[in-house]
Design brief:
Layout (H helix, E strand, L loop, with lengths): L1 H4 L3 H5 L3 H16 L14 H39 L3
Helix pairs in contact: 3-4
């Protein structure tokens, strides 16, 4: 769930610091850096075209965020598997 807030937070919780740093940098670059969807102008005369371009510009961040959520979930499942198998 933490990676759903911002990429890398779930990896940080799982104590995977290098992965957390990489996901955080990827999330920051795609959210606020050169690939930022914040620079998209929405024309009020045709808002649907503007929203489509905003969605296209947001795809890199959404993909990084989804990858981060899936990776954190899998890592948490792997680390919890021995405790589940031993009955704890």
């Amino acid at each position: 769930m933490l990676s759903g807030i911002f990429p890398g937070l779930g990896q940080l919780y799982n104590r995977e610091r290098w992965k957390a740093l990489l996901f955080f940098v990827g999330g920051a670059l795609t959210a606020f850096g050169p690939l930022s969807p914040l620079d998209v102008d929405i024309d009020l005369d045709d808002p649907f075209a503007g929203l489509r371009s905003l969605l296209r510009a947001s795809l890199p961040f959404l993909l990084v965020a989804l990858w981060s959520v899936i990776d954190a979930y899998r890592a948490a499942r792997r680390s919890a598997a021995p405790a589940i198998d031993s009955g704890q």
